[in-house]
Amino acid sequence: MKINYDPASSKLLTFHDKIPAFLDGSDTPRAYLERCLETVAAREPVIKAFVTFSLDRARTAADEATTRYKDKRPLGPLDGMPYAMKDVFETEDMPMQLGSRLFEGYKTGWDAACVYFLRRGGAVMIGKTVTTEFAFGEPGPARNAWDSDRTPGGSSSGSGAAVGACMVPVATGTQVRGSVLRPACFNGAWALKPSFGAMNLGGGFPSPPSVCHLGILGGSLADTWITAYWLSRNAGGVPGRPSLKGEAVLPKARKPARLARIESAGWAETPEDTRAIFNDMTARLERRGVEIVGRADDPELEAYERDLIKLREIMEVTLAYEGRWPLMMYADRSPDLLGERVYGRAIASADVTPEQYEEALDWSAGARIRHEALAAKYDAFITLNATGPAPEGMPVGNAVYGEKSSVLGVPALNVPLLAQDNMPLGIQLLGYFRRDYDLIALGHWMIHAVLREED
Q: Is 155 a catalytic residue?
């Protein structure tokens, strides 16, 4: 099944613009949920975004939200909002299976931090979405929302597909190598991978902790930001890390004065036709009065680009060393239940030394300092989120454009405003640590800058 994607006219499901109708009684959270479930019934047999559902509980939660809106006492901005949870977090009413045969049917009976606080805020979880094995290995059955012969990306594959197919307005994802940004890019969704530590990962699978992030994919920029901000402020950040700064509203659009155009290791792996689309987009920004500066124009940017080439090697060391537990334990105990990629990383991780890891940590700390120093020159960084549109078949796509924001710990935004071959192609904006709200304001401005030539 193929649906042509046009960023100017292809609209995904939104929630926060419906709240006035909930308050005046012309719509209700229960009716909104049922419309979502009608879409699920129509599209899920092909898209296969979900692992499991909890529909009775979802309907009960939507009814309770409906009563609160009728009484003019909603719990907050997420009350009554349907969403999907990536299956790497514990939920008291569903198993956490991690895309792994090793965890089939595994239930703890408890909610992860993000799940618990979303429930307290009145959000309505309809089910859990497909992920790759342990969020990096073999792909699951999920398909792209716009072309079911293509991948939805990984590892937040089901979340990207569920939002892209208008089953839910919001879904959670996790990212180590681009697993929030790339599924959003491939499925035409907005996504925020926030500053490192800003969103609580408690109750989730122990991905490499120094580079793992909880992120939000949404049908609109407003839904993406408001959900991320509310969850960060209520569930808190990772212990020892502060929550997001800003407000629980979409900030006013802010035009950047100067953007740093970066290529990283991804440019060499990006086909000419995809490069041309990105070049045309940056030319449009220049016509709108934004200065675009590249590596040839600034020696500091050239040095920064060299950092981004080195970063791939650093990421490999970090993933292997921090994944030693539990992957080596799984490989020792149940090798026959692991996919080839997971088993391979478990074996390779045994060879990474503490000295190599220490060097990687030192390099990463220095790279973060060098990144933040560029704030004096540039409002943000702009690049692609993938080497092209979603590839055909089930390979989850090239992660090269997603790694830098995780190692640097800075906020990154997928801006779904480009297309190639009638498929989504995302712009990536990278900001500065704990300046997520500023980045959202720039993304807001991009909506008009990219889709319209006139002021």
A: yes
